[in-house]
Amino acid sequence: MKKNVLVITGSPRKGGNSDLLANAFAKGAKEAGHDVTIFDAASDPVQPCQACDACWSAGAACVADDGFARLAPLMECADAIVFCGPVYWYSFSSQIKLVIDKLYAFAQTPEKLEANMYLMMVAGDPSPEIFSIVTQEFDSSVKFFGREAAGHLLIPGVYAKDDIRNSDALARAEAFGRNVA
Questions:
Q1: Residues with Cβ < 8 Å from 58, sequence gap 6 or more?
Q2: Calpha distance 105→70 (Å, rounded)
Q3: 123, 132 Cβ separation under 8 angstroms
Q4: How far apart are CA 85 and CA 111, in angstroms?
Q5: Up-side HSE of residue 162: CA atoms within 13 Å toward CB?
Q6: CA atoms of 178 and 181, how far apart (whole Å)
Q7: How many Å apart are CA 158 and CA 116, to the nearest integer?
Q8: How many CB atoms are closer than 10 A to CB 106?
Q9: CB neighbours (10 Å) of residue 26?
Q10: What SS3 class is residue 5?
Q11: Among candidates 147, 123, 148, which has minimal Cα distance to 133?
Q12: CA distances in angstroms from 87 to 10, 38, 57, 96, listed in the order given
């Protein structure tokens, strides 16, 4: 069955390992017959949540006119949402973290966010333990909506631009995209 797949990238390094991973995933998902949209949170920045509790009061998820104003409608119609970015200081890049913080709007109306959620991350550190904080935070965020994360693809040991090309990660990302549910 054809799905609407939304990939949210969050790396300030254009064309870097995260972007290559997202593009490989998108290629696999498209090959499987899905529609794919990539939203670059670094190019269309999301501002911090102001805790104003005005979510949905003006007909949109957030009253701020920022990247989330364009992202939230894409999230509403997505069947699958993939968060893709680098690990920065053992956590999410600020670009992804700001999107996750603004999921608060959907906590007010969880029926507007029905998508399966996936996590794809890259890290320069070669140890798989580098992902422990991001996977815990991501899984907890998804659990808040009463669901389990649909999957993780975690790629350690890629730091310099294009490092990911020297591994099987892009092939794994294509396969991950072909199997999106």
A1: none
A2: 14
A3: no
A4: 26
A5: 0
A6: 9
A7: 27
A8: 21
A9: 21
A10: strand
A11: 123
A12: 10, 19, 34, 10
Both tokens assigned to 41:
């949170």
Kindly state the tokens that stand for 181.
């549910």
Is the sign of the CA dihedral 132, 82, 58, 63 positive or negative?
positive
pLDDT of residue 110: 87
Q: What is the pLDDT of residues 2-29, one digit of tens each?
A: 999 999 999 999 999 999 999 999 999 9
**What global pTM score does this model have?**
0.96
Helices assigned H by DSSP within the chain = 17-31, 67-76, 94-102, 104-108, 132-144, 169-178
Separation between Cα atoms, residue 50 and residue 48, nearest integer Å:
6
Q: Which residues is 120 bridged to in the sheet?
A: 84, 153
- Tokens (6 digits) for 136: 């815990």
Cα–Cα distance for residue pair 23/41, rounded to 1 Å: 15
Instruction: Give the integer Cα–Cα distance in Å for 110 and 120.
Output: 23
pLDDT value, residue 108: 83
User: What are the structure tokens assigned to 139, written together?
Assistant: 């899984």
Distance CA(81)–CA(72), nearest Å, equals: 11
Tokens 């090959």 map to which residue?
Answer: 31
The ranges of the chain with pLDDT < 50 are none
